[in-house]
Design goal:
With about 250 residues, this protein is mainly alpha-helical. It has helices spanning about 5-10, 15-25, 35-55, 65-100, 105-145, 155-185, 210-245; strands spanning about 200, 205. A hairpin with a 5-residue loop joins strand 1 and strand 2.
Length: about 250
C-alpha cells in the first residue's frame, strides 16, 4: 500500500484502528510519538465519559448527577481537542521535514532555512505541550470521578488513568526531543534574528536559550503533576480490586 497517499490527503483520525496501526508500523516518521500520545489521551477521555454515563445509568450517582454530567461535558471537550492534536502533531513534524528539505545553496537560503526550521521545531514543541496540558486536565476529571463512580467500572477508571499518563509521558518526551533538536540548530544561544524571539510568560520576549529552559521546566512540572495524579487513581483502583472483594461486577 502507498501510505504516502493516505498521509498526504486524509486525516489520521478518519482512519480505522487497523490502518492507523499499519501507518505507525511503517518506515515513515509520521505518525509518531506525539500523535500517538494524543490518541492515548483520546482513549482516556473516552473511558471517563463511559464511566460517568454508566454510573448515571446504574443510578449510582448518589446525589452527584450534576457533577457527573459536567465531567462528561468537559471530557468530551478535551477528547475533541486531543482528536485534533493527533493530526496537528503529525503536521508539525511534516513541517520540520519540509524545512530540512528547503534549499541551502546560498548564505541567504541557509539563513532562511535555519529560521524556517527553528519555527517548525517550536511548533513541534508547543503541540505536544498542549497534549500534555490537556491530558493533565483530563486526569483531574478522572480524579474527581474516582470518588463518584460505579464500582463495577473500576478497571475502566484505572485504564483511563493509565492511558492519560501514557499520553502525558509521551507528550513530555516529544517536547524534550524537539527541545534538543532546537538546541542543536546552533541558534539557541541568542535571540532569533527575524522572529524577535519567542513569547513566554506574560508575552515577554525570550531568547532561544531562555525559551528552551522555560519549556523544559514547564513540561517537567506538568509531567510530575500528571504522573502523581495517575498513580493515585491507579493505586486506589488496585486497592479496591485486589485488597477488597466487593462483588460489584461490571455488567
Amino acid at each position: 500500500m502507498d501510505y504516502t497517499i493516505i498521509l498526504g490527503f486524509m486525516k489520521l483520525i478518519e482512519q480505522t484502528i487497523g490502518l492507523y496501526s499499519d501507518l505507525l508500523a511503517a518506515d515513515f516518521p509520521t505518525p509518531g510519538g506525539g500523535s500517538t500520545a494524543a490518541l492515548n489521551g483520546v482513549l482516556g477521555c473516552s473511558f471517563i465519559m463511559k464511566i460517568a454515563r454508566i454510573t448515571l445509568k446504574k443510578g449510582k450517582a448518589a446525589g452527584n448527577t450534576a457533577l457527573l454530567r459536567r465531567i462528561i461535558d468537559e471530557a468530551e471537550s478535551l477528547r475533541q481537542e486531543l482528536l485534533g492534536l493527533v493530526d496537528d502533531d503529525t503536521e508539525a513534524y511534516n513541517g520540520i521535514m519540509a524545512a530540512l528539505a528547503a534549499p541551502q545553496s546560498t548564505a541567504d537560503e541557509q539563513g532562511r532555512q535555519r529560521e524556517r526550521l527553528r519555527g517548525a521545531l517550536k511548533a513541534a514543541i508547543e503541540i505536544p505541550l498542549r497534549i500534555l496540558q490537556t491530558s493533565l486536565a483530563a486526569l483531574d476529571l478522572a480524579w474527581q470521578l474516582s470518588e463518584n463512580y460505579y464500582a463495577g467500572t473500576a478497571s475502566d477508571l484505572a485504564l483511563a488513568a493509565l492511558n492519560l499518563e501514557a499520553a502525558a509521558r509521551g507528550a513530555y518526551l516529544t517536547v524534550r526531543i524537539n527541545l534538543n533538536h532546537l538546541s542543536d540548530t546552533g541558534t539557541a544561544g541568542g535571540r532569533a534574528e527575524t522572529s524577535g524571539g519567542s513569547k513566554g510568560i506574560a508575552g515577554a520576549d525570550l531568547s532561544d536559550a531562555e525559551y528552551l529552559q522555560y519549556k523544559a521546566r514547564e513540561s517537567a512540572a506538568r509531567l510530575a503533576e500528571a504522573e502523581g495524579m495517575a498513580h493515585r487513581i491507579y493505586d486506589g483502583v488496585k486497592t479496591l480490586l485486589c485488597g477488597e472483594v466487593t462483588g460489584d461486577a461490571e455488567s
